[in-house]
């Protein structure tokens, strides 16, 4: 019998990428549990092999539904892979409440089901749990960096990570964790930095840089995140945390300049707008443990090439993102961004 994975948040940006990756590279069957919030797109699961993927609309904090979906995961290689989250920092500043529900209570609900049934569990998290670094800090985040989250989003992700660690230690839950840096690639909601600027330019709007644009993010292609998660599922040691990153540090200003150049515009054709409150300055991942212990390497080491392919994807797939755009920009306009 082929392995059966329960992928929560599989209709979102990175979760859907993982579903495509798993179906292309393994013989696993996938059940997606997704609440289909504003951030999701069922179309992101289009074109997958029939009979190997099933979409269940529902909430990861719904204990009865989670019980129904986790109980059958008893075979060799079966696992829960937990991507579902409220994921956007700016939204968490406007209203933290759904972040507590989904990120914290949702994780608790899944962990309790994994505990009852002895189910293998992989927890998807973020480098933001570590807070931020100075621009000139020679150190990067490692698995032993102290937690120091800044936003309601990152605080709820940090809390969910700590629940997983406690459930491993106290109840013997068979879990692994990964903390990844900023993802880019196709099918990312237009509220996020890179797709927002690409789709702004398609619409004739100048890109919007928060503050001076000196903040640094460590970019990784979503396909590389997926291959790393699959590697951890197959080879990771239970109870361990693995940091996922592809050495992709760039300031926001550099990224906007690259997008402008790739879309045939002048490099200074952008606007500075109101900065994000509490805006983390720099993230940077040291992924040595994942590379040396599990033998993982990224397949998209060239950020500029990956970005150009992403620009092409948004140009060619307007039907996928057009429905999100007006409401997203209306929300940003209210915040002066
Ligand atoms: P996303 O916002 O694109 O997708 C989240 C998905 O979760 C959506 O399909 C949404 O409908 C679903 N969801 C939300 N609440 C739910 C609930 N209560 N029950 C069931 N489904 C629910 O997010 P993303 O960017 O794809 O992030 C996925 C995961 O990866 C998150 O856990 C996030 O913290 C983590 N992560 C993201 C990044 C990044 O750069 N985007 C980097 C590192 C880690
Ligand atoms: O580091 C991993 C995290 O990356 C994930 O955990 C989050 O889920 C994901 O949303 C992302 O968080 P960021 O806050 O870094 O991503 P965002 O796309 O919102 O912003 C990236 C940077 O760009 C950040 O410094 C803020 C800035 N920005 C963002 C927008 C939307 C702008 O300058 N202008 C913008 O219009």
The first-level CATH class name of one domain? Alpha Beta
The gyration radius over C-alpha positions equals 19 Å
Total strand count, please? 13
Succession of helices and strands: EHEEHEHHEHEEHEEEHEEHEHHH
InterPro entries: dTDP_Gluc_deHydtase, NAD(P)-bd_dom, NAD(P)-bd_dom_sf
Family: Belongs to the NAD(P)-dependent epimerase/dehydratase family. dTDP-glucose dehydratase subfamily.
Enzyme class: lyase
Organism: Brachybacterium conglomeratum
Task: Please tell me about this protein's structure.
The strands form four sheets. Strands 3-2-1-4-5-6-11 form a seven-stranded parallel β-sheet, with helices on both faces. Strands 7-10 form a two-stranded parallel ribbon. Helix 6 (193-202) runs parallel beside helix 8. The termini are far apart. It has a domain at 4-183 and 221-244: Rossmann fold. The protein has 337 residues and is α/β, with parallel strands linked by helices. The mean pLDDT is 97. The chain is built from eleven helices and 13 strands. 2'deoxy-thymidine-5'-diphospho-alpha-D-glucose (DAU) binds next to helix 6 and strand 8. Residues 87-89, 126-128, 181-182, 192-193, 196, 208-210, 215, 217, 252, 276, 283 line the site of 2'deoxy-thymidine-5'-diphospho-alpha-D-glucose (DAU). Belongs to the NAD(P)-dependent epimerase/dehydratase family. dTDP-glucose dehydratase subfamily.
